[in-house]
Amino acid sequence: xxxxxxxxxxxxxxxxxxxxxxxxxxxxxxxxxxxxxxxxxxxxxxxxxxxxxxxxxxxxxxxxxxxxxxxxxxxxxxxxxxxxxxxxxxxxxxxxxxxxxxxxxxxxxxxxxxxxxxxxxxxxxxxxxxxxxxxxxxxxxxxxxxxxxxxxxxxxxxxxxxxxxxxxxxxxxxxxxxxxxxxxxxxxxxxxxxxxxxxxxxxxxxxxxxxxxxxxxxxxxxxxxxxxxxxxxxxxxxxxxxxxxxxxxxxxxxxxxxxxxxxxxxxxxxxxxxxxxxxxxxxxxxxxxxxxxxxxxxxxxxxxxxxxxxxxxxxxxxxxxxxxxxxxxxxxxxxxxxxxxxxxxxxxxxxxxxxxxxxxxxxxxxxxxxxxxxxxxxxxxxxxxxxxxxxx
Amino acid sequence: xxxxxxxxxxxxxxxxxxxxxxxxxxxxxxxxxxxxxxxxxxxxxxxxxxxxxxxxxxxxxxxxxxxxxxxxxxxxxxxxxxxxxxxxxxxxxxxxxxxxxxxxxxxxxxxxxxxxxxxxxxxxxxxxxxxxxxxxxxxxxxxxxxxxxxxxxxxxxxxxxxxxxxxxxxxxxxxxxxxxxxxxxxxxxxxxxxxxxxxxxxxxxxxxxxxxxxxxxxxxxxxxxxxxxxxxxxxxxxxxxxxxxxxxxxxxxxxxxxxxxxxxxxxxxxx
Lengths: 392, 271
What we know:
By secondary structure, chain A is mainly α. Chain A has helices at about 5-10, 30-35, 50-70, 80-90, 100-135, 145-160, 170-190, 195-220, 225-235, 245-260, 265-270, 275-280, 285-305, 310-325, 330-350, 360-390.
């Protein structure tokens, strides 16, 4: 599971530097400019159906190009055309014209890894956007309901204590752990009245509990090597992922995205709270449960495959809102696109910045994410003062 | 027919917030809900909107129980304006008004011409054209209430339920807002604190005390010195000097507290 020393590094091809060290494009640039100059409210915001179509079309092109270019970056020298030839050869049959080892680097290592980065970025972004609206909290993220802490406890139980007797992999343990944590949050929230605040507080309680359990198990039982492996995974890592993970994550992402989009109007209705949503004809309890379960399931699947990649789900929905506004029909697909492109580049940075070592991708997202997080805090803080000023 | 409450009660945690209240507004009427804090005005509005189920009794819409209707069908008929609607979401006035079309739209459909028409009509009725692209967070309290009423009108309701819509507004905005509500061609039920405004603008009044109906009828029938004393526990003189001979209420100082009040005033002035 540990990302260092994969076959790719073993190929010992000379780095050429061509196209390497490309800094990840900052997707929240729009949010920054908007925060700096609030005067014309809609400046830089994409509006109208045609504008959205152009944005999504352009986003898909950028995503495809990002994936293609990101695959060429790394110790093995590759061109975009090589990537294309391998994909065509593998899907359409025939010869790629590349050596088996180079074809392997594209098809077995970098392509699934980059695709999973895109899927994780999209999924975490969508989950974050939905939970922020549903829980009416701009600081909510996909892990706010304890899913990631539950996953870490599950993973630690399997890796350190050998829980499941080898039948469960780290991913399986993580998935079960996250479901247990989420189930506990739902139970707690339900018994406490089921309001938005209770859901959030239950999530925080579960997060604390499972983090403590994880630390407890690591401190009492783990050896240094196990600790390092678990720690690396906890911080999020896309190293050594295969096509099966890509397939499962993509399928779940598409299903959950469809569910969330079908409830886009209901999510809009939550803008002024659950009672206002009910007054707008939304069956609040049912929609809330459906969306909580759907997003938590997606988060659990992503976390079991790639670890708890932080900040993507917190920051990118805000960047997407700055682009297209808060209507969820436009926001959710936009968040997915922005998240996918963002994580493709962040992962590329994570595996090349301190080459031949690899950084956990969660470390890089946080390095980018913390300044953005501060900006969000700053913005919400300023919004409050504005409102106080207005009511005076 | 329209919206009717028949002997509805609502019990929460062993406490009766609403007890056996009946209400049947005529179409187009404006009904004022009066009563001290905690008398059950907001609770009754929630029951009428179907946001909460009644513990006993029924609320019906054209003779059909609210509980038997889909939430969406209710929201197409009954719109609610809350006391303090607020959000941390960054959106503009038009975005808020468009929320009113949610009950009329399918899960996947984009806005149709009738949605745009309803939004335009609501904007025109509330005269919000100059503010359409202003951010919600930069609006004053009066503008926010007007936007919420526009959102409610965009729902094209037959009944409008408003919970103390004039709270925290200056007197000019209070008068403007109530004029707007009265001139809206829908049945309105408005919870109010200001007895004079209720007398001026409402066709009929329902006074609640501890969840029970204390009085019901036209403003002249309901607003008497006795009622104000019994329900609000303050002394008042009521004269038929309001518009069209409606009652005008002047509150008097509580007996025996004159000196304390004067002391307070002096202190306030000398400060």
